[in-house]
Design goal:
elongated, about 80 residues, single chain
Length: about 80
């Protein structure tokens, strides 16, 4: 009976992790848009590179979280 609660807790933890990753992707997209806007006004191209790196790492984290939630419980 107790093991059912543990499995439910794991699923809830995975869903919370995915939700945090989604917010991370949204924030990183906003930062990337801000970096592009700043570059157009004359800022360094490093801002675009940094924004792209942040976005890609947040997207990678989201993909990993989704894959982890779709796999069954590990033994």
């Amino acid at each position: 009976m107790l093991s059912g609660f543990v499995v439910d807790d794991v699923h809830v933890a995975h869903r919370i992790s995915i939700l945090i990753s989604v917010f991370g992707v949204l924030v990183s997209m906003a930062l990337l848009m801000l970096a592009i806007r700043e570059y157009r006004t004359g800022a360094s191209a490093v801002w675009i590179g940094a924004g792209a790196a942040i976005f890609l790492s947040a997207l990678y984290a989201l993909v990993q979280d989704v894959r982890r939630s779709r796999t069954g419980p590990s033994a």
